[in-house]
User: Fold these one by one.
Assistant:
Number 1:
Amino acid sequence: MSRDDTFPVPHGFLWGVSTAAHQIEGQNTNSDWWHKEHAAGTHIKEPSGDAADSYHRWPQDMDLLAELGFTDYRFSIEWARIEPVQGEFSRAQIAHYRRMVEGARARGLRPMVTLHHFTVPQWFAERGGWTAPGATDLFARYVEAAAPVFETGVAHVCTINEPNIVAIFGAIDRLGVGAIGPAGLPLPDKDISAALIDAHRRAREVVKSISPDIKVGWSVATQACQALPGAERISAAYSWPREDVFVEASRDDDWVGVQSYTRTRVGMDGPIPAPMDAERTLSGWEYYPPALGEAVRHTAQIVPSVPIIVTENGISTSDDARRIAYTKGALKGLAEAMDDGIAVRGYFHWSALDNYEWGSYAPTFGLIAVDPATFERTVKESGRWLGTMGRTARCSGTDET
Ligand code: BGC
């Protein structure tokens, strides 16, 4: 196969898919998102409900992923389940997530565990969230309590998913989900950004104190900013608080996660919408596969000595052929960046399953479809296509750590 058709998965490369607890587990009733979904006057279109019922069906999900050929699985553990009431930790929930780690390994899937993926316990939100006094101590205490989940058998821990998006949740609450628009992001809250950077460092310390061998990092929502002629400084000023400051904060980490979906063009007056005739995904974002390669290069410019893992990349579409075309284009850009010497250690596709896309089930990102009534899983052609490349990597001796 030519370079355009397949990705040359190197030895030891992580070849996986990503999910997040709230988006697939269902009935995450002690989380702030569950409360937001059910609040009077909410802008949220539909509640998460049972999601994909993966809280119960994770063995089947992992069976499918391993059968398809993937070697790695990134999933998040849910703080709101582990500490549903402040200071009360659930041994049963910790044991549940430990079973998932062991279940992944038993199937030949290396688990990457995310400690925080957008949701917090409702009690944490009610006491003021990330900027309330003691918030980062509480996060560190949760990470310590969750140690049995990851202290052995987990090579990679992601502390916080997309802190740059978490820091705009306030704006999204005010403006609606459309605030994550095709024409750029609102300005992240400065205090929340600082608190998240602190929380990340504290979590890294805790994880390292539990097992110094675990490779710790976090994942940033990259924007692939493109400055229009003359707007280079405006683009840089736009990108810094929305992305670069979080990448910069990963300078001492073992890896940094790049999450890429589309680009943002920036002109003299700031971000501008995609061209009128541009193809758009179900999320309203411009169909732009080269974003991944561009985002990887931008990240490497900021922290050249930190290895990169692509922790999310994908497309919401009902046309699975477009998913394959998009992913081919994204992987081509990734392979070129690697050919140019950028250290990339893995690729995780978003997402394993069609899932709850923060307010709606309409944007379908999955390699596997889920029947909302029966929860029956149906593997899409894209899942078979992408998984097969991992099978080749495994045969050529994928690192088993
Ligand atoms: C998030 C996922 C989300 C995906 C697609 C990322 O921002 O980490 O939770 O579903 O993008 O929007």
Number 2:
Amino acid sequence: MALGIRPVLVDDQHMTPHLTRRQLMGAAALQTAAVLGFTRVGLSSAHAVEPPAAPHAPAVVIGSGYGAAVAALRLGLAGVPTLVLEMGRLWDTAGPDGKVFCPTITPDRRSMWFRTRTEAPLSTFLWLDVVNRRIDPYPGVLDRVNYGDMSVYVGRGVGGGSLVNGGMAVTPPRPYFSEVLPGVDAEAMYGTYFPRARRMLGVNEVDRSWFESTPWYRFSRVSRTHAARAGLGTVFVPNVYDFDYMRREAAGEVPRSALAGEVIYGNNHGKRSLDRTYLAAALATGRVTVETMSRVRALRPANTGGTGGAGGYVLTVERLDLSGRVTAVDEITTGRLFLGAGSLGTTELLLRARETGALPDLDPEVGRGWGHNGNVMTARANHLWDTVGAQQSTMPVLGIDDWNNPTHPVFAEIAPLPMGLEHWISLYLAITKNPERGHFTYDAATDSARLRWTRDQNEPSVAAARSLFDRINRANGTIHRYDLFGGNRKFADDFTYHPLGGCVLGRATDGYGRAKGHPGLYVVDGSLVPGSIGVNPFVTITALAERNMERIVQEDILG
Ligand code: FAE
């Protein structure tokens, strides 16, 4: 059903990696709101006292990561007043040290989501517990959701994962994309939506001659040489970090971020995170408002007579303060609800709605088809003469590409380990092809979703990573490091950065992310991708959201 609102005509074809005037207006709104301490951000927030929360919004987007940001922009451009609800905070206010985000080496409360101690991916060095720090509980930017045998790292705040990720902006190999999502027209994806996503995200590439000469990428060049000795090729990987800025960091012209070890707890400079791209553009439409520290807890149909949601939806929203206390619980109604809370968040909300009887007819596929994109971290110990350098940029730009290996396909990002001293370690995040899938069950006692994933399901991933890195070690006379991941393990297979699936496209939803049998209910994030995509996932999540939103706006909103 059309909302009867005229679309705002904007041609995004000409948006460049640099902020446009419209994006700058949105970014300014974000910044002003942050300075004034608002939890409600719109274009007018710089001038108003904080207005009361609206009990009704024509469209609501839950979360503010990649899928959510695309949804907010496309709804805003279509003229639909849209409310974005994000459980984390807006990351634009400097702390006492003058910085928005805390240092990686000396993390403080800004680092992690309500923890008393950090939980970094690499927990030890030389088996010593020297990495993690005691911190005060606070809505920090990185969360680690622990589910027994598998833990999942996610970003919290306006921009979701874009605030904490490594910025690697990789388009998957087309044959694998078609294998994973056979129902999606690859021609349209590779001709239109991937290029659109890359343009909007501000994807750029490292200058090759600078890469070959700078000390900041010595660690990548060393790993490339070692891979080549094993007959393996590497590829350059694009990124959303501004490489011109990075070169100026190296020249000492601007404050350092990627060259100061910043990444998993946020980048103070250089990174084109979503608050500077899609979300800034969304706010600049004047139709989009973001409310932070607002956690959606439950959803139900507005029209209690029917279960399908034809009359819209009611959301229960918990307003959090900086201590994590729920200060208010509001109900917001909406005609159209877009779930962009990420693979874990969206799946939990829909599973809870189905299992508590709020939306009992949600498809049985909700909660199924989850995977960790085959993530395994591992590290090698180099010879003393093979120094990786004390200076390391946190933004990876090279990957070992063995994806066409018939038995053990692997795409391994050459990851930095910026400790400010020479450590002779080569670190990798291997993305492997793992056919295993997990599923979520609803636990009524805790009112939460539980991931069912057992350690033995990692075996195909570990076997693939072992095969690749044993080969590299053999060719170079090197060995694995055992001291970095706890428990003398060579392969860290107990956590992932790439949660995917839970509400898979074409199974839990129709071919465009519409929840089956539930008008006005849409899934827009990484939960649509069935567990694996073979490369780092955010470009795919963004491009898929662009494809789906184009159709939804045309047919359901303007049609
Ligand atoms: P996501 O970005 O996770 O956003 C979900 C948002 O929803 C978050 O802001 C949540 O706080 C919010 N939320 C959740 N539940 C609720 C609720 N109930 N109410 C209100 N708000 C809620 O979703 N990917 C790459 O492609 N390249 C990389 O280099 C890369 N590096 C990574 C490094 C790290 C440390 C991490 C953690 C991830 C990395 N990723 C990388 C993965 C990437 O960030 C991830 O796939 C996307 O962020 C997922 O996008 P979604 O839109 O699904």
Number 3:
Amino acid sequence: MSGRFYISTPIYYVNERPHIGHVYTTTVADTVARTRRIEGLDVFSLTGTDEHAAKVVEAAAERGLETREWADRNAAAFEDAFAAFGIDNDDFIRTSEPRHIHFVEEVIAALEATGDVYLGQYEGWYDASQEEYVPEGRAKEHDFCSPVTGRPLVRRTENNYFFKLSGYADAMLAHLEAHPEFVQPAARRNEVEARIREGLDDVPISRTGGGDWGVKFPGNPEHLIYVWIDALLNYSSAVATEERRHYWPADVHLIAKDILWFHAVIWPAMLMALQKTEDFAWLALPGMVYSHSFWISEGQKMSKSLGNFVDLEQLERYRDRFGLDALRFFLVTQGPLGTNDSDFAESRFIEVYNNDLANTVGNAVSRVSNMTGRYLDGRFATVVETGDLRDQVEALEIDEGPLGLGRVAKGLELVRRVDGFVETTQPFRLAKETGREEEVAVILYQCAETLRIASLHLWPALPLQMEELWRRMGLPYAEEIAAGRGAFAAWSAWGGLPAGAGLDKGPALFPRYQDEG
Ligand code: ME8
């Protein structure tokens, strides 16, 4: 293996069942992980659940359940959902697990020893709906209501342990300057930078009087460690073992804009503080925090009060109707990866499915396999080294982007080139003329070879159907990737479809969808 790659998703609150937002981020992370797995990197992809929030306790109580029982049930729902949507994560961490709790205790004790965590008194505007304090300026700006949910803020005074965030403003600005890729997209980086320049206050990291669902402050068990501090540490606790430590630092923390501040400022400042300790100096800063935007639903913001969350049941219906790959493809290519929100609308789904998958990928594969069957007995006698389509394939350059997902767009474009090439060269017409067998073979080899190269680009988003295509070509890529021997660079070079290889016919990979209504 030529290197390692670590990507994480947020860990999700277990007060509720999963919905499209959770499946989205985790599917994108899975797709990114696969772009690295197919390159042969030693990949670690992590997801999991954030369990110590007060709203988990409340949600359980509303149902007359023990907190643990409700947390267990929902954690299982997340784990099952991710399996059902084809996520190939390497671990699923729950913050209620002993391995995590012990790690948090040790980290906090170490930070207390350096003086970065200290006991003090805090008075401020508390946003109960988000379980966070809102700085004075922001509170005023939002008329003393939550900037996220709009609910009234409450004035609260408590004895807390604090984290000395104020000591890290200069270091954070210097880090952003030296590593402009640290927060992406760039617009999010600029927001973060502007807010740091407004000044950083120390942050309370413990609470009292909230029962005992949480991690107890080491040496002062009346205090529970604030859920966010506990949660962020999951990224490190999951790899704190001898066998996994080499995965650190994470290459990408994939999150959405709602939790940018914690990931882009508080988390790296904590890691900077940990650099001063002996036991945790291995926790260098992650490579990138990538913050996407939000899905909305049929033109409206999704909210509990509107009851319009695209929930698991709805996502399952899409999966069952169009296939898992189609759902993944839609999420990854049409989702809110940039700074704009995206609308999840059925009409758009059908349009994308028919245009990109049925009429492009599916159609090209069936056309080329049909002609190969009919004119070449399903086999390619020789490797074709030169030709117009090869030139086009080699000239095509697409920016892969910070997450490597531009590769999927490139795969789709390669398939479009196959279509265009068939249109211009008309092998089905040549095949009817005598003495032109050689030309037909040269055309069809190039088509199949381009589809093979495209499939390597598309696999991260369309794993099931691209593996089906590989079976039809008799190529062992799926097994090689599973064994950690992905070789994207070598495989995607021209000529990988060997002489004697075939392209078997089979059912349509993406049958055209026609509304029955
Ligand atoms: O914030 N569109 O957990 P959470 C896209 N436990 N993505 C969405 C979304 C939407 N409409 N809604 C949610 C938490 N998400 C904390 C995180 S991490 C150390 C602790 C996704 O269950 C998106 O990834 O509220 C967002 O950041 C995350 O779910 C929030 O999940």
Number 4:
Amino acid sequence: MRMYDCISAKKAGRELPEEVIRYVVKGFTEGTIPDYQMSAFLMAVCLRGMTKAETLALTMAMAESGDMLDLSPIRGRKADKHSTGGVGDKTTLIVGPVVAALGVPVAKMSGRGLGHTGGTIDKLESFPGFAVSLSEQEFFAQVNRIKLAVMAQTANLAPADKKIYALRDVTATVDSMPLIASSIMSKKLAAGADVIVLDVKAGSGAFMKTKEDAAALAEEMVEIGNGAGRQTCAVVTDMNQPLGCCVGNILEVKEAIGALHGRGAEDLMEASLALAAQMLVGAGRAADYESGWKLAEGALKDGSAFEKFCEFIEAQGGDASFARDPEKFPRAAAALEVRAEQDGFIRSMQTEEIGMASLLLGAGRETKESRIDLTAGIRMCVKLGDCVSKGDVLAVLFAGDESKAAAARARLLPAIEIGEKPENRNGHVLKIIR
Ligand code: URA
């Protein structure tokens, strides 16, 4: 087989057999296929797309390029969730404890990630002492004991995806439906859960800008998951504004603690309950979505989800007194209010730009080597449709110094559009794909 022919066939729009896709993935991962040929291949996929069979083959080849985690030492049906990435998304911190409090095992591997804030792992490290590098045995034992553990993604989880993603990132080949679907699903399949619930974001802060594209991506991923023998479903959620109010690590942890007490923004609660409900149904703990939702709500109301969160923080060496008294978390050195420059209604938000403002504040990583400022971030004081007067506070920016806050303000202010009339708003959950 020659890589030249594989590129040529894809360029002509032909369907590639599974063995060809496996040859490409293996060759590139092992270094026998060079970057320039793989780049051409990826661009051909971007322009020509892939059939469902090709996408499944690509996913399996990437998943099997490294360790396939065997979660069978954990009792019960293991549930996992994954978000395609959005601004202010802290749902894992809420959904994990809710579902675990109801007896469903959640064995979650999380990445650190690049972007406007840290990943779940970084957020959890806001708790002094919290350890994320568990051995497999410790991970399994903790889930068996308390139903919830989160560990850092091992280096050998879908290494082919890691290498391919790095190339996509610099060759303008990220935004391809089959490449995104296979990238995400390869890691999920390798992580071993029986039940996978996907949160596919749609809007100005997401890869997929429209509900239709997000639904198509969700359907593709659900098909891959089910095709690989895992019970998979997806919730398409709105990302035309940051989820909840806060963007930034400690700020989001504090917001999640509030949500675990039932005090969260409407969109954050809706997303969390929808995801939890689907995980409960998938794991056989709830008969249907509505009863899953009610069970999840009950776990928030009776305090069991919050207690599970504290137990989980302690089990991984963290100081749970910070969860019981969030005022103990350190605060940023500088705070800057961003005020409305006119009267009107909040008509739209360029959510990606709000994420970039958060990055400028120091809340995220630009490169793998960047250091995160856990105290940095944004507290949004408005949601879409809100009525504001000139001088009202739209957001508060938190940073290590005032110059960062000023730079972020310049990025954030134009990202919030104020108009004369309010827009009609949909609910936060746009579609459920079972
Ligand atoms: N997240 C991933 O893991 N891969 C993609 O391609 C896009 C988002």
